[in-house]
Design brief:
Layout lengths: L4 E2 L7 E2 L8 H29 L10 H6 L1 H10 L9 H26 L5 H24 L9
Antiparallel strand pairs: 1-2
Length: about 150
């Protein structure tokens, strides 16, 4: 058996029998993770700027909506039966609750602006943060579609 790495004094260290190939699925998963992490970072940056630049940390409570919003849809996808013949009541209720939480996050920021707790500049930064964060959550469900056949 030949060694994996052999040293030739006339050349640099060469690899002779190890070949590393990443599959297309692995590449798409890694690029999805990189894209989602970048998008998440932009959303957190906008939220932090909206709070820090205007010296008001009340809008940081919108993070609760970011955490709670995907929970109903995640639970419904996990515990629902996949029947393609008709509508799935549990999944539709979960979509309704998720959309209610997303709209409430925007409403929370708008109520803070209406009560003059935050300024208009902070309002626009926070609306941008909401849009980026909820788009990231949506992209997560699109990129990592868990339609595997695993069951207990």
């Amino acid at each position: 058996m030949r060694p994996i790495f052999q040293f030739d004094p006339c050349s640099v260290l060469t690899c002779t029998s190890v070949e590393v190939h990443a599959s297309n699925e692995m590449r798409s998963t890694i690029s999805g993770i990189i894209g989602l992490s970048f998008s998440f970072s932009v959303g957190v940056l906008l939220l932090s700027l909206g709070c820090a630049l205007y010296h008001n940390w009340w809008p940081a409570f919108v993070v609760i909506f970011y955490i709670v919003a995907p929970i109903p849809y995640s639970l419904a996808r996990r515990y629902s039966e996949t029947s393609y013949s008709g509508s799935n009541c549990g999944l539709e209720v979960a979509l309704f609750l998720t959309s209610l939480l997303v709209i409430s996050a925007y409403g929370f920021v708008l109520v803070l602006a209406h009560s003059e707790t935050i300024t208009r500049g902070a309002l626009w930064l926070l609306i941008g943060a909401d849009t980026v964060m909820f788009s990231t959550i949506l992209a997560y469900f699109i990129v990592f579609n868990d339609d595997d056949d695993f069951s207990y």
